[in-house]
Amino acid sequence: MTTGLIKSTNNGDVYCECVEKKVKQDSGKEIRSQIANLIKWIARLRVFHASLYGMQLTLAYWLMLIVMTYNVWLTAAVM
């Protein structure tokens, strides 16, 4: 059954033809926008992980230097 822009299908679903066209036109732009936002978010996350790794590496290096002094008191203080 068709009434203007509103249509119904054989299984009872009702939809508006003008809304369907708009969704089809905007879906490409929306998907591209979501992908761009996802890429930006992933880039920020990678920078955050890299900074955490750098901090971990620096702390491990300082711990190694403290232990290599063979000073029991400094090593016990850190551990």
TrEMBL record:
The GO cellular component terms are:
membrane
**Matching Pfam families, A to Z?**
Ctr (PF04145)
TM spans (from-to): 59-78
Q: What keywords does the record list, in alphabetical order?
A: Copper, Copper transport, Ion transport, Membrane, Transmembrane, Transmembrane helix, Transport
The protein here is known as Copper transport protein
Q: How does it sit in the membrane?
A: Multi-pass membrane protein
Q: Which family does it belong to?
A: Belongs to the copper transporter (Ctr) (TC 1.A.56) family. SLC31A subfamily.
What coarse category fits the chief subcellular location reported for this protein? Answer: membrane
* Origin superkingdom: Eukaryota
Q: Could you tell me where this protein is found in the cell? A: Membrane
Per the UniProt record, the lineage of the source organism begins with: Eukaryota, Metazoa, Ecdysozoa, Nematoda, Chromadorea
Q: Kindly list the GO molecular function terms attached to this UniProt entry.
A: copper ion transmembrane transporter activity
